C-alpha cells in the first residue's frame, strides 16, 4: 500500500479496538484534520473536495455554528425540563418552515431515535402495527427501526409486520400505467397482505430522496394517491427527511413539499446541527396528542441548550447565505455537466437527482440495465485518488452517490466536473 505510515498504523490499531462492523470507505482510506466549506484537508495539507458528506450541511467547521456552540458550552447546558427561551425560539423558527398542519416538535439526538419515536407514535395513534417501507430502505439502528431497514444485512431480522414496496423508479411502471398508479397499487398490495396476516397498518415511512434505494427524486406528483391509500387503511404517512431535509433538494426546505402532500409525521436529523447530534420529529397535533398525554417523553440530550444552539445557528446560515438558491444553481450545473460528460457512455444508464443529491447509475449495458458494481467502485476510487470524495448506493451499489455539503459552490462544481471527465475518459 502507498498509504502514509501513520495512516497504516492508525488503521491497524483501529481494527484491534473497533469490531468488524466498522468499515472504512475507499480502497485507500483517508484521514482529515480540518475542513472548510466543501473542502477537507489531510495531515499533509492536501485539499480534498467533499462531494459526499451531508452532515456539515452549511460547510465544514462553519464559524457561525462553531461560535454559537462554543458560546453555549461556556454558558450553560440544561435539558427540556427547564424553561428555555432559546428552545422555544428554535421550535417556532423550525416549525415555521412547515405547513401549518405540522405544528408540534419533539427533539432527539439521531435520525434513528427520531424514526423510533415517529413509529411509536404512529402505532399508538392508529392501534395498528403494520409498517410499509421501500425495498432497500434504511431508517436507522434501534431494534424497532432496524426491523424495517432491510439494508442492514442478513444478520438483522425484519419484522413479521413489515412489507416492502418498490422505490419510485419510473422504469418499473408498466406500459399504459402511471407512477402514481404503480405506487398506489404497491401500497394497496402491502396493506392487503398485512391485513391477511392480522396486521392493521400503522405507517408508511419513506425517505423523500430514496437514498439507499438508489436516489429517486423525480418525477414528483405520485404521493397524493399513495397517502390517500394509507389514510383509507387507517395508517399515517411518515416522511423521513433525514437525507432530504434542510434544502438538500433545492426547490424547498423539505422533500415532501415537492410532492404536494402534507405528511402526518416528519423526521429529520443529520444536517440539523451541522455535526452536533440533534434530530427532530414534527407532528400533526391530532396524531401525537394522545401519545403525549399517556407516555412521558424525556430525552436527556435531545433539546438541551447546546444542540439547540447549533440547530439555530444552522437556520441562521441557511437564511443569511441563501443556501437554497446555491443548492439549486450548483445542483443544476452539476447534473447538466454529468449528463454532458456521460451522454455517449454505454455504461451510464441515468444521471438523476434534485438539488445537491445526485445519482449516476452505472451498468454493464444501457439496454439491459444490468448493474456494474465493480465499475462503480472503480470510479469512486479513481475520484478519491484525484482527491474528490463520493460513494455508491442502491441495492446493487451501482449508483454513484454525489451528496456534498450545501456549501458546494460553482468553483467546486467546475473542479468536480473536470475531474469526473478525466475519470470517465478512462472508465466510462
Ligand atoms: N433515515 C435515513 C433516510 C437515513 O439515511 C439515516 C442515516 N443514514 C437514518 C434515518 C438514521 O439516522 P442516524 O444515523 O442519525 O441514526
Word description of this protein:
This protein has helices spanning 5-17, 63-73, 85-95, 111-126, 143-146, 179-196, 223-232, 285-294, 305-320, 323-342, 373-385, 410-427, and strands at residues 32-36, 39-42, 47-50, 104-108, 130-134, 162-165, 201-207, 236-240, 265-268, 279-283, 348-354, 357-362, 388-389, 391-393, 399-402. The chain folds into two domains: 31-58 and 322-427, Aspartate Aminotransferase, domain 1, CATH 3.90.1150.10; 64-320, Aspartate Aminotransferase, domain 2 (3-Layer(aba) Sandwich), CATH 3.40.640.10. It is an alpha/beta fold and 428 residues long. 37% of the residues lie in helices and 16% in strands. The strands form three sheets. It has a seven-stranded mixed beta sheet, sandwiched between helices. Strands 1-2-3-13 form a four-stranded mixed beta sheet. It is built from twelve helices and 15 strands. β14 and β15 form a beta hairpin. The longest helix has 20 residues, at 323-342. The structure holds 4'-deoxy-4'-aminopyridoxal-5'-phosphate. Residues 110-112, 115, 138-141, 207, 211, 240, 242-243, 269-270 line the site of 4'-deoxy-4'-aminopyridoxal-5'-phosphate (PMP). Residues 110-112, 115, 138-141, 207, 211, 240, 242-243, 269-270 line the site of 4'-deoxy-4'-aminopyridoxal-5'-phosphate. This is Putative aminotransferase. InterPro entries: Aminotrans_3, Aminotrans_3_PPA_site, PyrdxlP-dep_Trfase, PyrdxlP-dep_Trfase_major, PyrdxlP-dep_Trfase_small.
